[in-house]
């Protein structure tokens, strides 16, 4: 059996623990080859380090997709996140069409906004394109703000939602699985509501809320979830692993008093994911 491959279509923030800088090590330690396809390179993430140096790689993405297709590459997983333009979102749709195999897990993190507001870089055209990309996914992982946008509501319309019916509504009549992150089931806890379209099951996964609001935790969550699904695990198990890994990382980071702009110190905790991957692989 060949090693599993995941194409990760994201930006690369060179400092600040988010996007491809966290996705690559997480998927690697989970026992699969992560093949990055960055649409933009940024000097840092955009959460507090001042003016950011950006390099647009839209043209490079087209060439990479063409080359990968010529090589006959097919991926076990395709995981998309932040993209800087509607053109890049359409490129991600092309990637899904051209690089998917029979059992490819397509996971879309529809990065559009948070805390009841659109990100300033998101245009109506981008929001529409992201909705179209979600139609091609097996799993989508919006937060409450993004869930509202995908449903055609005001960005702040669902901030008090906690019910699993929200995930079911986003599934498009059961056509895809949904994980809605950033839910607050009760004070002191964070959670995700989910609906598994393969089984019809739904539920809420709860974890202790660590102090602090750290950039990149959504990328980490979806990376762990993607790795779990590509390993053949259930959505429920993947959501649980991702939620509790994020809590461990955030608690460890808070205990060390690290500047929140640095993101969570996940590197020392990667062995937690390695142990799971080894346990799943009977060849080792």
**What structural class should be given to the helix and strand makeup?**
alpha/beta
* Helix residue percentage: 25-40%
Strand line-up across the major sheet: 3-1-6-7-10-11-12-13
Radius of gyration: 18 Å
Mean pLDDT: 93
Contiguous helical run count: 9
CATH classification, class level: Alpha Beta
Overall CATH architecture:
3-Layer(aba) Sandwich
Major beta-sheet overview = 8 strands, mixed
Looking at CATH, which topology would you report? UDP-N-acetylmuramoyl-L-alanine:D-glutamate ligase
End-to-end distance, in Å? 13 Å
CATH superfamily: Ribokinase
**What is the helix/strand order?**
EEHEEEHEHEEEHEHHEEEHHH
Any overview of this molecule?
The protein contains 9 helices and 13 strands. The protein is an alpha/beta fold and 284 residues long. The chain has one domain: Ribokinase (UDP-N-acetylmuramoyl-L-alanine:D-glutamate ligase, 3-Layer(aba) Sandwich), CATH 3.40.1190. The strands form 3 sheets. Strands 3-1-6-7-10-11-12-13 form an 8-stranded mixed sheet, sandwiched between helices. Strand 11 and strand 12 form a beta hairpin. Helix 2 runs parallel beside helix 3. The longest helix is centred in the last third of the chain and has 22 residues. The mean pLDDT is 93.
């Amino acid at each position: 059996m060949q090693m599993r491959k995941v194409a990760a279509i994201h930006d690369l923030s060179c400092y600040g623990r988010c996007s491809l800088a966290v996705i690559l090590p997480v998927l690697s330690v989970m026992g699969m080859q992560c093949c990055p396809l960055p649409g933009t390179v940024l000097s840092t993430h955009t959460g507090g380090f001042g003016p950011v140096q950006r390099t647009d790689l839209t043209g490079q993405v087209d060439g990479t997709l063409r080359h990968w297709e010529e090589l006959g590459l097919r991926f076990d997983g395709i995981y998309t996140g932040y993209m800087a333009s509607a053109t890049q979102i359409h490129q991600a749709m092309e990637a899904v069409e051209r690089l998917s195999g029979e059992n490819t897990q397509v996971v879309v993190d529809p990065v559009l906004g948070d805390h009841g507001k659109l990100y300033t870089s998101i245009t109506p055209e981008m929001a529409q394109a992201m909705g179209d990309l979600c139609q091609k996914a097996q799993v989508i992982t919006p937060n409450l703000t993004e869930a509202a946008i995908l449903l055609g509501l005001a960005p702040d319309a669902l901030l008090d939602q906690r019910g699993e019916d929200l995930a079911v509504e986003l599934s498009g009549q059961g056509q895809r699985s949904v994980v809605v992150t950033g839910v607050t089931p009760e004070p002191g806890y964070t959670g995700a509501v989910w609906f598994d379209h393969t089984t019809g099951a739904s539920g809420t996964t709860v974890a202790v809320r660590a102090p602090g609001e750290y950039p990149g935790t959504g990328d980490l969550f979806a990376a762990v979830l993607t790795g779990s699904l590509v390993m053949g695990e259930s959505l429920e198990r993947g959501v649980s692993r991702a939620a509790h890994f994020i809590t461990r990382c955030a608690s460890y980071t808070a205990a060390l008093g690290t500047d929140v702009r640095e993101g969570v110190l996940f590197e020392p905790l990667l062995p937690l994911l390695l142990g799971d991957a080894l346990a799943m692989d009977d060849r080792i």
